[in-house]
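Project standup — Tuesday

K.O.: blocked on the structure for the chain from last sprint. Re-posting the sequence here as requested.
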Amino acid sequence: MSGSGFDPAARPRLSRPTGPSGYAWLVSEAADIFELNRTDFLSTVGEFVGIYAAAMGADPGELPTRQAIMERHARNQGFRALAVRGGHPGHIVAFTYGFRGVAGQWWHDVVRAAIVAGSGAAVASGWLDSVMEIAEVHVHPEYQARGIGRRMVLALTAGRTEHTAVLSTRDAPTPARKLYYSLGFADLLTDFLFPGGGPPYAVMGAALPLEGHAADASQTDTAGPRPSTW
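H.V.: unblocked you, prediction finished:
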């Protein structure tokens, strides 16, 4: 495991868009991105688990536990979830969600302890005292490499009051890792093993708003993600 002394305040801060225009840039081409409330998310979580399994090549035996984790996450403060419809007729092909990270959450506490051990308490506080934790970003394999993941992450973090965003991803040169780098994320931990086993992960962080947000915001004045009507 390695730590990073990267300071989230070191990157020049962009002005934060306010109001509905904070979402405007997310809609492009024919992607149907929409926001779900907690009730809608929980009623659709089975579909999201299926997308997770397809995107990650997950063992079927782990899916009930993954679904329980998603359901628990939906109760967290500041929870926001987005999904994407695609195809004809439209069906859900991608989703993402996140929430405000606070002490007492398992992932938050594990990551804070590791950053403190590797880089010190001040660096950990800079990243995690006011943080949005991006828990899941998944696109069905048939719809990958179309920019959907990028638009979802930008939309998910738009207009947030937190100062930083953090996430974990496989510590490998994957398309997801490259996407996060392109959005301004930096490695906070590498070759990191979460308790309970599994492959090495990288924990990545970025200052909010994300890089690319201002440029994308200037390209459209369309309305933001539609609320779910389910």
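K.O.: great, moving the ticket to review. The domain at 2-218 is CATH 3.40.630.30 (Aminopeptidase). The helical segments are 21-24, 38-56, 63-73, 106-119, 121-128, 148-157, 175-182, 213-217.
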